[in-house]
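Dear colleagues,

As part of the handover before I leave the project, I'm documenting each prediction I ran so the next person doesn't have to rerun anything. This entry is a single chain, and its sequence is reproduced below.
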Amino acid sequence: MDMFINLAHGLLAALEPMNLGIMLIGLAVGTIAGALPGISFVNAMAMALPFTYAMTPVAAMVFLGGIYAGGVFGGSISAILINIPGTPASLPTCWEGYSMTKKGEAARALMLALLASAIGGVASALLLTFGAPPFAEIALTFDQPEFFAATFLGLISVIAIAKEAPAISMVSLFCGILIGSVGVDPLYGMPRLTFGLPILQNGIDFVVVMIGLFALSEVLEMLGKRSHGQGEAKNIRMKLPNLKELWGLKGPALRGTAIGCLIGTVPGAGATVGAVVAYGIEKQVSPQGKDFGTGVEAGLVAPEAANSATTGAAMIPLLTLGIPGSAATAIMLAALVLHGITPGPMLFAMQSDLVYTVFASLILANLFMIGAGMLVARGFATIMKVPPTVLGAFIVVLSVVGAYGVRNNIVDVYICLGFGVLGYIMKHFSFPSAPLVLGIILGPLAERYFMTSLANYDNDPTIFLTRPISGSIMAFSMLFIAWALVPGIGGMIMRRLVPRKKSSP
């Protein structure tokens, strides 16, 4: 009963005009920043951090929480409209969302992504409110082997994402891991794969690669065919799908939400792993799994629900243990420390007003995100009305600015252009680019967790299998591989567990 009373007090505090206004500003900032390639909501949170010094602790957390909630969805806007993932977590959104845009269903894709994000975000905020203490006890048992196992699960999900060419997808994945290893070794500080070029010692940023592979390659494809954008979104009207349509997508939304909440509680896993795993699982269980990549709504809803569901879940280890579960929550930790507040178990006893106001504001932010997301998406959707040549020029300018803005380095622009040409070539040879990007993003994380695990546990490789949680995740990963590679296993299991309805023609 005390929990509900505290939540009610937190809700009243979050609805105060000052706090509510700050939250809405944060939502707008996060949504716009997430939709702009190369900016990202994490950078927006970092830039906003100094301004929180002049705010109260409650206002600071409400502001950053708004940016966090809005930014996760914002990355999907550019992913759906122009095939540029605004954030790494919105990468799976490109695969189905942009395909829907090319079929003239941009507005529907945006609304489904928005509603799925809201469902996942609200669910994770409720999980944060009522399930923080028990989840904190589980998270307390996590160490480097568990972090590696979670990241490894995200990497091998590429096999489930692959259609009829898992071997080619694996080659693309390993190429991405190789590219991600360029730079200075994180453990020993030695340069590798730099070929003596100082410009490569800082590595190759995955944002630059994503912009080149997805955006610039699409421009080249557009100019080659001169057909893209003709009539795709002449009348983009944002309207809610009817209840029957939404009810038909309840399965992907719930599965994505559950996966996101689970993975979000693992520090270091993040929204990218959650979205990719949700997409891979949905591809296996969906009756339309063979059609994924052509604009299947279930493949859009599941990862969108998952990446938003990680927001509240990632705050569980932050508030209860003082362990940030993602880059965004690390910035929120800095804001708390800036105001002299130490996260941990005592925070709930000493600063309960702050804690439950944060809980309530996160719930409200995900609800208000529907309105904010519709406004921002409608503004971005107008770019689909312009001729293909103008649209192509806009994408190129946006891509160049985004690539340069990542590290303020002109070399990143050249790298982006190079990967644009590479992406165009890969399309024409049916070589998947998504696994390559995943390898660049998750490869360095997996390496870091693997090496530190061995260093902390006497170079014993069996530690990943003997620890209960990491061993369970690794076993699930192996099952995932068998499910995807061995014909008939996935279907046999699903027929035993879930009797399928006959799909309508």
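Residues 2-497 form one domain. Confidence is low (pLDDT under 50) at residues 227-235, 488-492, 501-505.

All the best with the project,
I.
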